[in-house]
Structure prediction request, 366 residues.
Amino acid sequence: MRDRIGIVGGGQLGRMLTLAAKPLGFHVTVLDPGVDCPAAQVGAAQLAARSDVVTWEIEHIDAATLQALQEDGHPVEPSPATLAMIQDKLEQKRFLARHGLPVAEHAGFDAVGDDESVEGRVRAVVERLGRDIIVKTRTGGYDGRGNFRFDRFTERLAEGALDLDDLYAERIVPFTQELSVVAARGSHGDLAVYPTAETVHVDNICHTVTTPARISAGQEAAAREVAHETLQLLGGAGVFAIEMFAVEGGVVINEIAPRVHNSGHHTIEANVTSQFEQHIRAVSGMPLGSTESRAPAAAMINVLGRRDEPLTLEGLERVLAMPDTHAHFYGKSCQPKRKVGHITVLGDSVEDALRRAEQARGELAI
Ligand SMILES: Nc1ncnc2c1ncn2[C@@H]1O[C@H](COP(=O)(O)OP(=O)(O)O)[C@@H](O)[C@H]1O
Ligand SMILES: [Mg+2]
Prediction:
């Protein structure tokens, strides 16, 4: 039995995974920081020695180290090959497109013909996609860092700050909402999909998550279908989050996160099985749990730090006096825009839950 779980990454996701694993009796070892530093490569081997299965909570880690562990016979879930494919956003887009899944039209900055100049390579992309594009860093981007609108891209390029080999472009999608479908793949290929959530980003950082998503029945069906198809293509067991755009008549995939995700935090209270317990179940070879909602609606709001300072929980007593309101703090000190906690509110409607979540957030002086 896989009852010792090794987690790469010691942030809030690792913390919440550990909090879910403990009541089930699992033994958890956490390795932090990322496995791409030389010391951590030794650490990864030690982690594997202490664990029956290794998984992760951050995706910007060295997939080759995990692959080597797997080749040495240590179970790693989900598959390191899947992680490596997802880490390169262009490879990920190409993979999804090749399998017929809906993604924004995209292109790498490859030389066309003999013209290998920077200008020629940019011109080729503009001829194909136009200027209504977002240029993205292929690897290592998060919270919108590494994404540029066309004008900013050309500015940064002129400053010599960018390398076209590390970038690709995609058409801007005229979306009505951003969505996320959290889903799990069990060790026997069984799937469990959570109800679609709506996400709102402020300054490219997740601000609120609400469920059910206020989309048409056709869009909901498309989101679930796309999530099912995507998970069938990915190797290994675990929870994945599929970020999507709601567009007229359907959905377009933005990106896949090969891990538990901020857009699934509400599942701790709002669903029969939380995404964290689900991931532990998946990677340990246990049956997946029900993804059914426990309330008609839920809203999650992130709590971000404002300044460099220790976290003070002023106002928590007012938050905890509110009905069906749940606060989580991660034991991190505050830094500007750093996620230090979240609040989840269950309610009868999305509007009601969201209003009360915002009210609860307003009670906290951070
Ligand atoms: N093709 C696109 N069209 C419109 N908006 C986009 C597109 N790609 C990204 N965005 C916006 O930028 C945000 C961050 O982009 P994303 O690729 O998800 O980067 P990150 O890896 O930093 O989350 C998205 O949540 C969305 O709001
Ligand atoms: Mg994203």
Q: What stands out?
A: The chain is about 35% helix and 25% strand. The mean pLDDT is 95. The longest helix spans residues 217-233. The pocket of adenosine-5'-diphosphate (ligand 1) is lined by residues 104, 134, 136, 141-144, 147, 170, 172-173, 178, 201, 204, 243, 254-255 (CB under 6 Å).
